Amino acid sequence: MIILGIDPAIRTTGYGVIKADSPASFEILDCGMIQNSARLPHSECVRRLSGGIRELIATFKPDFASLEDPFVGRNAGTAIILGMARGAILAALAENGIPAFSYSPKTAKRSAVGTGSATKEQVAMLVAAELKIGIERIPLDATDALALAICHAQRALRPELAEMMGKPL
Fold this sequence. Notes:
Elements: E1 2-7, E2 12-22, E3 25-35, H1 42-60, E4 64-68, H2 76-95, E5 100-103, H3 105-113, H4 120-131, H5 140-156
Parallel strand pairs: 1-4, 4-5
Antiparallel strand pairs: 1-2, 2-3
Helix pairs in contact: 1-2, 3-5, 4-5
């Protein structure tokens, strides 16, 4: 099973692609960021973000996608911008028939490293050790995306946890 984990943002969206053969056996296929300059208008960022997700889909042909739940703070403008990024991502996934699931950052981190309060650096260290790759291969903005992919893999591959996946977005 191939899972694309995505940590959405309008300027820097982290992604992680894993292959999961069992709930405890994962391999990183790729991880990185889709970046947009602060000088670009939001419409161009959305176009580039959607295009980047389409490229990842074409390259890795994921079976599922796992996104971070949206953070809704007190700033409505920030929530709207995050909604634009999530919409671009979900449109690209839907166009390709890829079911997308959403998890909170704490749930994803707890699944990947055992604690929901882990820092990005701690997630990178533990994921690198678990997946037997150099930590320098994991950009910090991709750590949450990898945790999201691992979280979904653990639920999808364990029938007793399948109900915890929720419904696709």
